[in-house]
Amino acid sequence: MLRLKPFTPHDLRRTAATLVGDLGFDDAWIAKCLDHAVSKRGDVIVPTVTSKIYNHSKQMKE
Fold first, then answer.
1. Per the domain annotation, does 7 fall within a domain?
2. Mean pLDDT of all residues in the chain?
3. How many Å apart are CA 27 and CA 25, to the nearest integer?
4. What does the pLDDT average to over 6-18?
5. Does 30 fall in a domain?
6. What is the largest CA-CA distance in the chain?
């Protein structure tokens, strides 16, 4: 028996977002893959939900 805690599809989305964040993909790209809305500030795309909830990557921005 694996003794895993119950999980939901959103848990898998968070895991995927974090893994690709660890690979260096930016939040705007991850947001598009997760079909999240993105907003723009000038020429910069700013994901709203993705960086707060889904991408738990600890890497610093270059």
1. no
2. 77
3. 7
4. 86
5. yes
6. 52
Backbone angles phi and psi of 47, in degrees to 5: -70, 140
Which residue's structure tokens are 């939040």?
27
Nearest to 28 by CA among 41, 15, 12, 11: 41
Could you tell me if residue 11 is inside a domain? no
Give the count of domains, the chain.
Answer: 1
Does residue 61 belong to any structural domain of this protein?
A: no
Q: What is the percentage of the chain residues whose pLDDT exceeds 70?
A: 73
- Residue 33: what pLDDT? 84
Q: Which domain holds residue 33?
A: 25-55
DSSP 6-62: P--HHHHHHHHHHHHHHTT--HHHHHHHTT--EEEETTEEEESSIIIII----PPP-
Residue 40, both tokens: 């723009």
